[in-house]
Amino acid sequence: MDAVILQFLNGLDKGSAYALIALGLTLIFGTLGVVNFAHGALFMIGAFCAVTMSRLLSLSHQVVDETRTDFLGNPMKVDVPYVNDWFGEATGALIIDWAVPISILLAIPVMLLVGIVMERGLIKHFYKRPHADQILVTFGLAIVLQEIIKQVYGANPIPTPAPEAFRGSLDFGVMLGFDPYTITYPYWRLVYFAFSVIIIGAVFAFLQFTTFGMVVRAGMADRETVGLLGIDIDRRFTLMFGLAAIVAGLAGVMYTPINSPNYHMGMDFLVLSFVVVVVGGMGSLPGAVAAGFLLGILQSFASMNWIKDIIPGIDQIIIYLVAILILLTRPRGLLGRKGVMEE
């Protein structure tokens, strides 16, 4: 039972990332009808927003520390972060320690700008083109962004730790009546799951309860009619592209302590997340979220040793097997609209 619970927690962790990226993908497809293969790159850019913020907060200058001497007895020069000068040593150290959550303040405007520029500068020219053209051009854009990140930050992963308060593990088993240390789980992975639920809930609430969101949902259902009412639906859809970019970027920001950012992390998640979208149903926001968590849990359980002993490599292909079964029996996906992908 303890192994089952642990794998379920791992599944929620993986599913959180899949659901957030798939949610953004579905927002773009549902509003603009564009298959955006550059969406994984937005996840990557968000992760490197955290790297950038961490480096900015750690910028320092050298001062002479009279209390410390080198082997010759001369006072040593030490690096003092600028935030220590501005806010004091204790507060400065706290700000540096919380660099990843603080990166959200940088990621939101950056991702909004990147999303709008991407949509206005390139993707708008492919609205009426075949999906194959959209896939090719956005995949090419993803490669360009990936190489830019590689050139600026290097090819090696960049460790970006979580705040010290969340670097340990929670004794989850004790809360369920197990012996101490039977089931322990990293705090930050639980934080990431909670963060994902908040972001997903906020997106659905925005679409459901705001006038802007209701107009967007109407435009998703019948774009021409909304346009005839005198509403600039194209402008709203552009902002939705920016919102989708923000969701992907925030997913990347908070994922950095779990997986050190590297230039190909976007591609690693993109294919899996696109499969999640297809399984959930192209254009279905609830389907994307449900499929993200479902496939994350299935992949987690498939990685158990006794299952891999029976079917070697099943953890690597389980998501694709499920996708094949879904497409064969229900081409529109689990919660997809009737007629989508069924022509």
UniProtKB/TrEMBL annotation:
> Could you tell me the membrane topology recorded for this protein?
Multi-pass membrane protein
Tell me one GO biological process term: amino acid transport
In terms of CDD domains, this protein maps to:
TM_PBP1_LivH_like
MF GO annotations: transmembrane transporter activity
Q: Indicate the transmembrane segments per the record.
A: 16-35, 42-64, 98-123, 190-216, 237-258, 270-298, 310-328
**Where is this protein found?**
Cell membrane
* Cellular-component GO terms for this entry: plasma membrane
Q: Which UniProt keywords apply?
A: Amino-acid transport, Cell membrane, Membrane, Transmembrane, Transmembrane helix, Transport
Instruction: Mention any Pfam family matching this sequence.
Output: BPD_transp_2
Q: What is its main location?
A: membrane
Family classification: Belongs to the binding-protein-dependent transport system permease family. LivHM subfamily.
The name this protein carries in UniProt is: Branched-chain amino acid ABC transporter, permease protein
